[in-house]
Specification:
Structural class: alpha/beta
Largest sheet: 6 strands, parallel
Number of strands: 12
CATH class: Alpha Beta
Number of domains: 1
Radius of gyration: 19 Å
């Protein structure tokens, strides 16, 4: 296949490029410098020139707290840009796969969120990402994920290891739960869905819901450090409080994959151990 990947310089985008190249696909990656996805003309021109079989739209503004201070930019990048990419994909016959987030839900459900649960985002970031979802046609693939970590870019695993090297004690919230998802695993499942041209909404996460407190303990244990150095705190007690509200329950049930008989991603401890080993080896 010939595949265009936007946001190719991000932690997920880099994994997608490597995986597609390794699978023998003809892949072109763009970043903000090479393609401004908020520019309709530029997007149409890029897709018209390349004529890809598929477009994986991984570009987004994911600075959750910063989105609160600039809603126009959040909606321009996370919603309007999706409109342009979806239009170009339809016009030139490419299958579109778009990446979204657990933040489209309000986090109040007692059970994991299904693909068919109604969204109710509480932050500007979540609302802008829902806006992007609404720009997709029924033929597109929508992948929602959560708590993405990986070798590339900034993420929570790297932050926890860095803090562990700087402080004797660490504090993380114990009232926000989700499923850590590792970029390499996520990329592999997305490529599988794209090659299959499966339409609709899919929740794609590694298995094993945890709180941030529990996850921080797991990261330290994986690195051979004492998980007892991590203490719990409630979101309400964070000082200063975060500008953007976080969903208390971010656990996504991978129901569409499971009910379709598609293999789920492994438990997050497997890729966590691999990643921590890679990071510690340099």
């Amino acid at each position: 296949m010939k595949v265009l990947v936007t946001g190719a310089d991000g932690q997920l985008g880099r994994e997608l490029l490597a995986l597609l190249h390794g699978g023998g696909h003809d892949v072109v990656g763009t970043d903000q410098a090479t393609l401004d996805v908020t520019d309709r003309g530029a997007v149409l021109q890029a897709v018209a020139g390349l004529r890809p079989d598929a477009v994986i739209h991984a570009a987004a503004w994911t600075a959750v707290d910063a989105c609160e201070t600039d809603p126009d930019l959040a909606f321009r990048v996370n919603a309007l840009a999706v409109r342009h990419v979806a239009e170009a994909s339809r016009r030139f016959g490419a299958h579109l796969c778009h990446v979204s987030t657990d933040y489209v839900f309000d986090g109040t459900k007692a059970a994991p969120y299904l693909e068919w649960d109604p969204p109710n985002p509480q932050s500007v970031y979540g609302r802008s990402k829902l806006g992007g979802e609404l720009e997709l046609g029924p033929e597109a693939t929508l992948v929602r994920t959560s708590w993405v970590c990986g070798w590339h870019g900034a993420n929570m695993v790297k932050t926890i290891l860095r803090l562990a090297g700087e402080r004797d004690e660490l504090t993380f919230v114990d009232d926000q739960r989700g499923c850590p998802t590792f970029a390499a695993d996520l990329a592999a499942k997305m490529v599988e869905l794209v090659v299959d041209r499966r339409p609709g909404v899919f929740h794609v996460t590694n298995q094993g819901p945890v709180s941030w407190f529990e996850f921080a303990q797991e990261v330290l244990a994986s690195a051979g450090l004492d998980p007892g150095r991590v203490s719990p705190i409630s979101t309400a007690d964070l000082a200063p409080p975060r500008p953007a509200p976080r969903p208390a329950n971010s656990v996504l049930d991978n129901a569409a994959l499971r009910l379709s008989g598609v293999t789920l991603l492994p438990h997050h401890r497997e890729p966590l151990d691999r990643l921590v080993g890679q990071l510690r080896d340099g």
